[in-house]
Design a protein that fits this description.
By secondary structure, this protein is mainly β. Helices cover 4% and strands 41% of the residues. It has one domain. It contains 2 helices and 24 strands. The protein has a 20-stranded mixed β-sheet that branches. The relative contact order is 0.17.
């Protein structure tokens, strides 16, 4: 066989997703589905984590494992796939709803639709039934189509969910980026499908948005509790949130595929990092001492702080407006006096549920966003 001189670029590979009702959890991804192409920055290949083993056995007189001693099966495994995309107006909600498996929205009227994803004392996150019927998009499950440059090389992943998602607002980059990992417990030959041809189907892939509006990295309101001062104004250079749900496959059907997914066991973890300017409102002086919340005063825990970020006027009544509110518990306080933009304080944190008299009370995390797409359009 002669050497092939054809070379391919990352732009020749595409990733598409399609939302499916959880009642179709065990239904294989279809090669004629209308997958919506994600605006991926770098295309990653799926990683197959299969059940396998190999060892020296007693009938081997040598010191190297024999080929017949090797074992591998596509039954009982799982698939992961990393991605990074710019956050677009009609994409961010469905991604965040999927990783937290939470979403409410009044979809009876017309756009804009006000989406809420939250974990509060009055609306705690609930573990979904991944084989039950989806309501307002929850449980949220994706089939994934992987488009390759030549025919009969495409792949399909069945019933994937986000295992982790990072939402990163970097003022230097100017836009919000989403990155994370898809997870599927379907690795049998009937659910992880290879040597497919997706591009020739009548239901051709389309962009997730034909006229995308990228979400920018700015906030009209940026407030944080600091050393007893409630919701002090601050200047931020970056803020990010990472959501991890510990999703894992459960059971093994006759094909070896997952029968359901465990979610949030033992917990759902929300962590993040915020970088803000060392200035007249946030510094190391009394009543403004950002370090004091980390050290605590008269207790051994340190203090939590409410973080509020808003794009828009706070009403979330126009497409593109966003509110984020969460209770953060700092895990460090770092000062960089040599930053190019001036001295910057960086605080890694985790999101926690506030309490009153020992009982959950208030908001751990709340995300509100207005766009033109109801969950039925996902």
């Amino acid at each position: 066989m002669a050497v092939s001189g054809k070379v391919y670029s990352k732009s020749d590979f595409s990733v598409g997703i399609i939302n499916k009702n959880a009642t179709a959890f065990e239904t294989a991804a279809a090669n004629d589905a209308a997958y919506e192409l994600l605006p991926v920055i770098n295309v990653s290949a799926p990683v197959l984590n299969l059940v396998e083993s190999g060892e020296i056995r007693s009938n081997n007189a040598g010191m190297v494992e024999l080929d017949i001693d090797q074992f591998r099966t596509t039954k009982g495994g799982f698939i992961t796939m990393d991605f990074e995309v710019p956050a677009e107006r009609d994409l961010i909600v469905r991604m965040l709803a999927n990783v937290l498996q939470d979403h409410t929205c009044d979809e009876s009227g017309s756009a804009p639709f006000i989406h809420t994803i939250q974990s509060t004392s009055g609306a705690a996150l609930a573990r979904p039934d991944f084989t039950g019927s989806s309501t307002t998009g929850i449980p949220s499950v994706f089939d994934i189509g992987l488009y390759y440059p030549e025919s009969a090389q495409d792949k399909m992943i069945t019933s994937a969910v986000l295992q982790s998602l990072t939402m990163n607002f970097d003022m230097a980059d100017g836009r919000c980026l989403l990155s994370g990992t898809f997870y599927s417990g379907m690795t049998s030959s009937s659910k992880f499908l290879v040597e497919q041809t997706l591009s020739a189907n009548s239901a051709a892939p389309t962009l997730s948005s034909t006229s995308p509006t990228q979400i920018e990295s700015y906030f009209n309101v940026k407030k944080l509790d600091v050393d007893g001062t409630s919701l002090a104004d601050m200047v931020i250079t970056a803020v990010s949130f990472t959501f991890e749900n510990n999703v894992a496959r459960v059971g093994r059907d006759s094909s070896g595929d997952a029968e359901a997914y465990a979610f949030g066991i033992p917990s759902v973890n929300i962590t993040g990092e915020i970088s803000l300017m060392y200035d007249g409102n946030v510094n190391f002086a009394a009543t403004k001492n950002i370090l004091q919340d980390f050290l605590g005063s008269g207790d051994t825990r340190g203090a939590t702080a409410t973080l509020k970020l808003q794009q828009g006027d706070g009403t979330v009544s126009t497409a593109g407006e966003m509110n984020i509110e969460c209770e953060i518990y700092s895990t460090a306080v770092n000062l960089d006096p040599n930053a190019d933009t001036g001295a910057v304080i960086t605080i890694p944190f985790k999101v926690v549920q506030p309490t009153s008299s020992g009982a959950a009370s208030g908001t751990a995390f709340k995300f509100e966003y207005a766009d033109s797409t109801p969950s039925t359009g996902w």
